[in-house]
Amino acid sequence: MKNNLKYIAAAAALACAGIAHASDYQGGVTVVDPEFATFAKGGLVGAFDLYWDFSVGGGPWTLTSSVTSFVNGAKDVDFSRIFLTDGVTEYDYTQTGFDPSEQWSLAPVALTSGIMYEIHTIGSATGRAAFAGELQITPVPEPETYALMLAGLAAVGFVAGRRRAA
Predict the structure, then answer these.
(1) Per-residue pLDDT tens digits for 101-129
(2) What is the residue range of 8's domain?
(3) Number of Cβ atoms within 10 Å of the Cβ of 19
(4) Which of 54, 91, 115, 130 has the fewest Cβ atoms within 10 angstroms?
């Protein structure tokens, strides 16, 4: 419910945005915190091919992402394809929700530091429609973290075994 309110607020803000006169758009993502970012576009009419650029530092990282279109009366977005690319490989989003409000999600993808990534959204829209997306970037646990976790589990198992024996 909390995420739905965010999407509705983003859609309302985008509905007030100006009309895009070009068919191509390039923008950056809005970083909310180090592990969460958003991207959005409103005022869409006709065919569009929009993309957002971003890169990550440090790492390694894992990315999950989703895109949701907003419907308000005659305003509608129909995506034909959404994908993430690093310039070599393309990772397609999967449609998980259908008209009138489409939802697309991306399976976890490993990101490499220093590479420029682009999210492409291709489709058509009517009535100055809007959509928004989010990126969740999480660090991949290091081997030391796994070793510490296994040591903790072994200690718990040892204590449980000693209690059972007593």
Answers:
(1) 788 888 888 888 888 888 888 888 887 78
(2) 2-165
(3) 9
(4) 115
